[in-house]
Amino acid sequence: MIARRHARVQGATRELSPAFTDPAVVRAALADPPQGWVDVRDGELLASLLWEESDDGRAIAGIIGAAGSPEAMARLYAVAGDAWMARGLATHVFVVPSVDRPLADRLIDLSFGREEAYAVRPLGDRGGPRLETGIEVERVGLEHLETVTRLGDLLARHHEGSPVFDRHSNAFYSGLPEEYRRSVVDEDARVLIARAGGESVGLLLWRPGAPFPLYDERSAEMILLAVHPDARGKQVGRTLVSTAMRDMSSFGHTAAIADWRTTNLEASRFWPAQGFLTIANRYVRTVPERPTAG
Ligand SMILES: CC(C)(COP(=O)(O)OP(=O)(O)OC[C@H]1O[C@@H](n2cnc3c(N)ncnc32)[C@H](O)[C@@H]1OP(=O)(O)O)[C@@H](O)C(=O)NCCC(=O)NCCS
Description:
The chain folds into 2 domains: about 1-110, Aminopeptidase (3-Layer(aba) Sandwich); about 120-260 and about 270-275, Aminopeptidase (3-Layer(aba) Sandwich), CATH 3.40.630.30. The chain has helices spanning about 1-10, 25-30, 70-85, 100-110, 145-160, 170-185, 235-250, 265-275; strands at about 35-40, 45-55, 60-65, 90-95, 115-120, 135-140, 190-195, 200-210, 220-225, 255-260, 275-285. It is about 35% helix and about 30% strand. The chain is globular, with a radius of gyration of 20 Å. The protein is built from 8 helices and 11 strands. The mean pLDDT is about 95. Strands 1-2-3-4-11-5-10-9-8-7-6 form an 11-stranded mixed β-sheet, with helices on both faces. Helix 3 (about 70-85) packs across helix 4. By secondary structure, it is an alpha+beta fold. The structure holds coenzyme A. Coenzyme A (COA) binds near residues 264 and 273. Coenzyme A binds near residues 227, 234 and 236.
């Protein structure tokens, strides 16, 4: 059922993996054993909702394994929601392909809101032409971890502000250098730094591979992009992305992936302007706490 659903989505979104239309490939990508619910009527499978728990205590459904009509999914969510709340999981997440508007609309009626956009840009043109912006981009390693941390923090600080309001703890900030180090060492992330007027003004990290198995396995992912506030709007971001895309292409990758908060106004304008097409969105609902006097 999941493979059939992917075939429908992939028909409209060719950048997704054609391999995922094979039930054996889907089976191999599922958790072992998968967890979730199915809706069976008169021996016929109508819908399935598989889910996993994220490190930060969210219940995530839909990356793979949410298949069925919007009505059937709503009924399964009622079952899932009860079970998640009983386990103390008050934040519920669905990832929905952009072509599945009816499911997205149904989730909005269930009080979900759009949080994140996932987008793809094919690299069939070898990542596009070299830009003559006068901005120098250098590939660096961990010897520049301090610069990476300084520029990388800008993204988290940007997310703290309005209208994103993504609040982080002090522990989160103090753990960032280790996160960046881990990305480079364990995930083979490539580090690009942009320089203008002798200063390091922008940072881009990308890594081979894709966040979800339904992407083409030859994809590569943009994992971090930040430009210093004083240098924004001067083509630094564009130069970094175009260098990264040509890098990806030279390593044999066929598509670039990026994702961003839909509340991040700069990113929401920037990525589509670089040719990225939104292929899925993340919808989120957080059930409010019970009143303390309740
Ligand atoms: C998003 C960000 C990286 C863009 O970098 P930048 O160097 O300012 O962008 P550029 O100058 O290269 O802009 C390239 C294009 O993006 C678009 N764009 C970028 N910022 C924009 C803005 N604030 N408003 C409108 N369009 C914008 C424009 O189309 C621009 O093309 P143009 O020069 O032909 O007008 C930068 O704003 C930033 O660091 N923001 C905070 C961190 C962040 O949001 N990172 C991305 C997280 S996913």
